[in-house]
């Protein structure tokens, strides 16, 4: 039986990935600071530990795994990434994790390792026009990410690719574009836009208003988690190194996203625009390269993923609502 290590298995994407790999018949070890908040892990072995600790990483990478998926990072939504308050933690924590995991994999001769980078590494100067952002893979340089999170992702991409060149590793690098779905963070400050809007709308009554940071005309694309897993696994098992975008080309404004969720919920809502951290003005996945090299592109419309996600978050909101007096 082939064995797989999933770093970040207690997180949103990692939890879904473990489940997918178990369905495919793999023996899976997961590792994270904590167990999954919303579901029991299906990993054969789950290690609770800190991947910033080099000795812990050596214990976890104790064999030649057939595949390693490195998803672990210090991250969150705009309210966590773009305020500047968490920059030192984001850079130190994520870089340390990547240095530890990659070197341990190399020393155990685990050649095939996937790294989840982010579209946040693209230059801010190519994302100023919300209608025409440029996120082609070859647009990454001259580098100018809009956040320290993006700079760390760019550094770690180069780290993994350096190990390919110098140590014969077979790293695969994907640039994720706003992955969303059920069983992800939906409250507390680290949630991303789809989850935050689902929460706000689930708590609202028809006719209420919800708050949107900025004018809401900033654009993004959002990829449902099942689609993300398909792109991730195809890349990992291919002969293509990347970096490559894993995202949707269905670009919407944040206002449009909110109104689509409200329609899914069957509610009429008003949008109240307030100051807040925004990130770049426009961002959209460009999927020519992944289509050419892997013969894959997302097949599911945004609304379908939002229907699944809203239903799950609505249940969380109801389950966590204060009891009536």
UniProtKB/TrEMBL annotation:
Pfam families tied to this protein: Epimerase (PF01370)
Domain of life assignment: Bacteria
Boundaries of every NAD-dependent epimerase/dehydratase domain copy: 4-246
Membrane spanning residue stretches: none
Leader sequence residues: none
Classification via InterPro entries: Epimerase_deHydtase (IPR001509), NAD(P)-bd_dom_sf (IPR036291)
Keyword tRNA processing among UniProt keywords: no
Keyword NAD: yes
Record's keyword terms, sorted: NAD
The name this protein goes by in its record: NAD-dependent epimerase/dehydratase
Protein's organism: Hyphomonas adhaerens MHS-3
Lineage: Bacteria, Pseudomonadati, Pseudomonadota, Alphaproteobacteria, Hyphomonadales
